[in-house]
Amino acid sequence: MGKKDIGIGVIGVGMGSGMFSLNTDNSTRLEVRTICSRTKEKLETFSRQYGIPHYTTDYKELVKRKDIDIVGVYSPDHFHYEHCKAALEAGKHVICTKPLTNNLEHAKELVRLVRKTGLKFLVGQTMRYDPQMVTARKFFDEGRIGDILFAEAHYVHDIRPVFGLTPWRLTDQQDTMYGGCCHPIDVLRWFLDDIDTLHAFGSNGNLTPGYTLMNNFTLNLKFKNGVIGRVLGVYGVIEPVEPMMKLSLYGSNMNVVSTYSDNLGGQVKLVWDDIEYRPPAEMTFPPERGIDVYGHTKAMVRYMKHLEECILNDREPSPGVIDGAKTISAGYAAWQSIKEERVVTVFNEF
Question: Under a CB-based contact definition with an 8 Å cutoff, are residues 245 and 183 in contact?
Fold first, then answer.
């Protein structure tokens, strides 16, 4: 095995368990050295199973450890600000799973702290690291799509099984505007940059007794470059027939549709305007299963290698803390639009 000299401490070992495969990956210097959870029995099991030398139930102990360079925040959404803030104040780089937080003022404070400390901060938006989404980005960067004329993205998922895997989402009433819609909002921002104005509607699917928040959303967006688009974030439904995640880019030269589902893998479908009859082409991507139950391990490894490169070469991670904050700002504006029944201007001055 190669040199393992960049230590990681992971807070939250549900989704965070996807980090453990880094320890046996010879192509990276990253190593998980300590893990943190409120459940000691779970920590003991993971420590034995994956050979992780240290564990703790106190995140404050984790962030202060001298052998830790990066803190991975995979705790419930409402703890992200607290845990990220502690890590930054302790001088650690941060990888925070999406969403950055569920509070706009907290997002502003994290941007301020990253600027003050100069530390690297990556938001774990896995859609940017799924192969089919990366393929769409490659077509865009090479100019093959041309100018984007319209764009839409969705994340549609029956949330009920997820409540069983992560009960906090029900007991603490996860706000899926931030915890769910952040996926399609972020992936559209990746291609079109800042959102200028938006209009949103929301409802509760009422499929889960005790869950009282809205969990089905539509957002109509106008980006600062003039392009319009749409986000569909729907979680209070039975599992849909179409793929869980979808990105559609309508370009002046080419249309690209990229899709992803945990168990089915992904597709990229293309239509060129300059080919007679415009026959669609299709690429398929097999499912990427890993050691975690969510199926995002491979994407997590890819974004951690990106963070490693950014730390070693002093580059800015993508998506970084400002990207994460602008996604939260869009979610905040969407809630404002729903409550006030009007078009809202999105705050982007971070």
Answer: yes
The domain 6-126+297-320: what is its CATH number? 3.40.50.720
Query: H or E segment at 245?
Result: strand 245-251
Q: What are phi and psi of 220, to 5 degrees?
A: -95, 130
Summarised one tens digit per residue, pLDDT across range 17-45 is 999 999 999 999 999 999 999 999 999 99
pLDDT digits (tens, 9 = 90+) for 73-130: 999 999 999 999 999 999 999 999 999 999 999 999 999 999 999 999 999 999 999 9
Which segments of 220-296 does DSSP mark as H helices, in order? none
The domain defined by 127-292+327-345 carries CATH number 3.30.360.10: yes
- Concatenating the DSSP letter of every residue in 296-328 gives -HHHHHHHHHHHHHHHHHT---SSBHHHHHHHH
For residue 287, what are the contacts with CB-CB under 8 A and spacing of at least 6?
Answer: 261, 262, 263, 264, 265, 295
Measure CA 24 to chain center. 24
Please report, for the chain, the start and end positions of each structural domain, with discontinuous segments joined by +: 6-126+297-320, 127-292+327-345
